Amino acid sequence: MKLIVAVVQDQDSNRLSAALTKSDFRATKLASTGGFLRSGNTTFLIGTDDSLVEKALDLIRENCRSRDQMVAPVSPMGGNADSYIPYPVEVEVGGATVFVLPIEHFHHF
Ligand code: 2BA
């Protein structure tokens, strides 16, 4: 068994959720925040058989788009000066950031 941890953009989360459910995957959605943009994204936890990992990755690929996003200058006031960005920059976010982890035990009581 594997645990797929997928960080996706909020705009894609409903579509991905529907696609996973339609294909009989079980998933948990967590509200999360990216460390760099400090804006909301969605983290999916998907527990599945090894044989179905590729199918789940296909669904993630098909339903998550990459987008360019502007990062506004961040004031260092009250924050960490190391992460101060004095001018707007454009970054490409996603499709999805995906980790596939082996699961030692799975219990569902
Ligand atoms: P954020 O940390 O908010 O990052 C958003 C986007 O900003 C990233 O898109 C990347 O294009 C850019 N970025 C991040 N850190 C950067 C840096 N130090 N310098 C320049 N640009 C930087 P993605 O790579 O597609 O990541 C989307 C979200 O996925 C991230 O949001 C974070 O929540 C998660 N993520 C990405 N890599 C991760 C990792 N290695 N571990 C845990 N979460 C990760």
Quick synopsis:
The protein is an alpha+beta fold and 109 residues long. The protein has helices at residues 10-22, 53-63, and strands at 2-9, 26-33, 40-48, 66-71, 89-94, 96-102.
Q: According to CATH, what is the class?
A: Alpha Beta
Mean pLDDT: 91
Overall outline: elongated
- Lateral strand order in the biggest sheet: 2-3-1-6
Count of discrete alpha- or pi-helical segments spanning 4 or more residues: 2
CATH topology: Alpha-Beta Plaits
Give the count of structural domains: 1
| Rg, Cα atoms, Å | 17 Å
The hetero compounds bound to this protein are: ligand 2BA
- The separation of the N and C termini measures 17 Å
Secondary structure category: alpha+beta
Helix/strand order:
EHEEHEEE
Number of strands: 6
Task: Tell me about the largest β-sheet.
Answer: 4 strands, antiparallel
Give the name of the CATH architecture: 2-Layer Sandwich
Strand content: 35-45%
Description:
The strands form two sheets. This protein has a four-stranded antiparallel β-sheet with strand order 2-3-1-6, covered by helices on one side. Strands 4-5 form a two-stranded antiparallel sheet. The protein has a single domain, classed as Alpha-Beta Plaits. Helices cover 22% and strands 40% of the residues. It has 109 residues and is of the alpha+beta class. It starts with a strand and ends in a 7-residue tail after the last strand. A hairpin with a 6-residue loop joins strand 2 and strand 3. The chain binds ligand 2BA. The site of ligand 2BA has 11 residues, from strand 5.
